[in-house]
Write a structure and sequence with these properties.
CATH superfamily: P-loop containing nucleotide triphosphate hydrolases
Low-confidence stretches: none
Strand order of the largest sheet: 2-6-1-7-8
């Protein structure tokens, strides 16, 4: 029987990088569900469609294909109509589009079966906003990973600067705070800790310490 680890938390908490490292250490598959919403957000942007509940969004979902595949290292590749968009969805604009599009009920329903089917056939660590509350409520391990808005903004700022992007810390902090509000106040599947989850705050932890903390929680509960 496969083992599912649900890792939820706000934007910039380090879920993706920490979950990816932990999954590799455990020989699990890592599933970044945020990438799926970013991909639909990218599709909406390309088609000049507002990321709000509408017939246009429903029509878009009927005419696109979003898939996940994994390379020989178990790393996730996201495909939009067969195109690898893994790199195109990692921008601040894509992040905000993901936050907005993820509040659309039809989008969440569209992706739900895809996410659950992956969990049925693999040992996984799946991260997102509502994995433990909605997508995988029966996950063996549920973790809510967080950090202060300032710490998360600083980490994102450094990451984007290292990629050569011209960004301002103040703008990123504003985006983090805005997305926190949007994610926690949306009507459909708002961001919140799942019942029975383990809370992990990484504000004072570096990356390696955060990974070790997550691994210890997982090992204690499987």
């Amino acid at each position: 029987m496969s083992v599912a680890v649900a890792l939820d938390g706000p934007a910039g908490a380090g879920k993706s990088t920490i979950a990816k490292r932990a999954a590799k250490a455990l020989d699990f598959i890592y599933v970044d569900t945020g990438a799926l919403y970013r991909t639909i957000g990218l599709a909406a942007s390309r088609n000049n469609i507002e990321p709000i509940p509408s017939a246009e969004v429903d029509d878009l979902l009927s005419n696109i294909t979003v898939d996940l595949t994994f390379n020989e290292n178990g790393e996730q590749i996201v495909l939009l109509d067969g195109e690898d968009v893994s790199g195109l969805i990692r921008t601040p604009k894509a992040s905000m589009m993901a936050s907005k599009i993820s509040a659309v009920p039809s989008v969440r329903a569209y992706l739900l079966d895809l996410q659950r089917n992956i969990a049925k056939s693999h040992n996984i660590i799946m991260d997102g906003r509502d994995i433990g509350t909605v997508v995988l409520p029966d996950a063996k391990v549920k973790i809510f990973l967080t950090a202060s808005p300032e710490a998360r903004a600083q980490r994102r700022f450094k990451e984007l600067c290292q990629k050569g992007m011209d960004v301002k810390y103040e703008d990123i902090l504003s985006d983090v705070i805005t997305r926190d509000y949007n994610d926690s106040h949306r009507e459909t599947a708002p961001l919140k800790p799942a019942d029975g989850c383990v809370m992990v705050d990484t504000t004072e932890l570096d990356f390696e310490q955060s990974v070790e903390k997550i691994l210890s929680v997982i090992k204690e509960n499987i």
